[in-house]
Design goal:
This protein is an alpha+beta fold. Helices cover 49% and strands 9% of the residues. The protein has two domains: 87 residues, Glutaredoxin; 95 residues, Glutathione S-transferase Yfyf (Class Pi), Chain A, domain 2 (Up-down Bundle). It contains eight helices and four strands. The chain binds glutathione. The site of glutathione has 10 residues, from loops.
């Protein structure tokens, strides 16, 4: 059994979606986090080292960080086919997209919120939204999902960002249609129904 510590409408929502796609046995433990409106606060029972979400507990292992959780769960439930297997041609691009999201796309997004996207250190380290939009468009112009013809955990991560904040992804019909396709997935709909606990 997997326990997901979850705060509604946060980065842990995408892990509910992933767990639903995987068909994994799990329970949700609603936890409190500080919210931008001043509500909420850290939950002493939350095992996350920074009292954030998401974090999972699985067979005694505590795993935090959305991307680590996604990779861990896809490997724990390989029969769901949400990650290319080790040795498969798309394994490298799969890991690259996961790392690119955490290591580049999110920092670029946060720099944008914070109003310093054009800081020279930001641009030289991570580039700008233009470059991440170009990568996403290059992929979705060619095939229905980020890695190709098959839906993977990368789509949960990239898609959930678009559902949360549409301008974080490239504008236009190709991405609108992609997000619609993702939102229509039964697992995404089950996850949305469970988001508020
Ligand atoms: N890089 C982390 C970010 C986690 C994160 O910042 N989560 C937010 C919710 S969306 C949080 O728990 N904030 C509470 C706080 O800042 O104390 C991940 O993707 O798992």
């Amino acid at each position: 059994m997997i326990t997901l510590y979850h705060a509604p409408q946060s980065r842990s929502s995408r892990i509910i979606w992933l767990l639903e796609e995987l068909g994994a046995p799990y329970e949700i433990r609603i936890t409190s986090i500080p919210r931008r409106d001043g509500s909420g606060g850290p939950d002493p029972a939350n095992p996350h080292p920074d009292k954030k979400v998401p974090v999972i507990v699985h067979d005694g292992a505590i795993v935090s960080e959305s991307i680590a959780i996604a990779a861990y769960l896809c490997d724990a439930f390989p029969q769901a086919g949400l990650a290319p297997k080790i040795g498969a041609p798309l394994r490298g691009p799969y890991l690259e997209w996961l790392a690119y999201y955490a290591g580049v796309m999110e920092p670029v997004m946060i720099a944008g919120f914070a109003g310093f996207s054009d800081n020279p250190a930001v641009v030289s380290t991570w580039r700008t939204p233009r470059e991440s939009h170009a990568r996403i468009s290059a992929s979705l112009d060619k095939h229905p999902f980020i890695l190709g013809d098959a839906f993977t955990a990368v789509d949960v991560i990239i898609g959930s960002v678009g559902q949360w904040m549409r301008p974080a992804l490239p504008p236009g019909d190709v991405v609108d249609d992609y997000l619609k396709r993702l939102a229509e997935r039964p697992a995404a709909q089950r996850a949305a129904a469970k988001d508020n606990g």
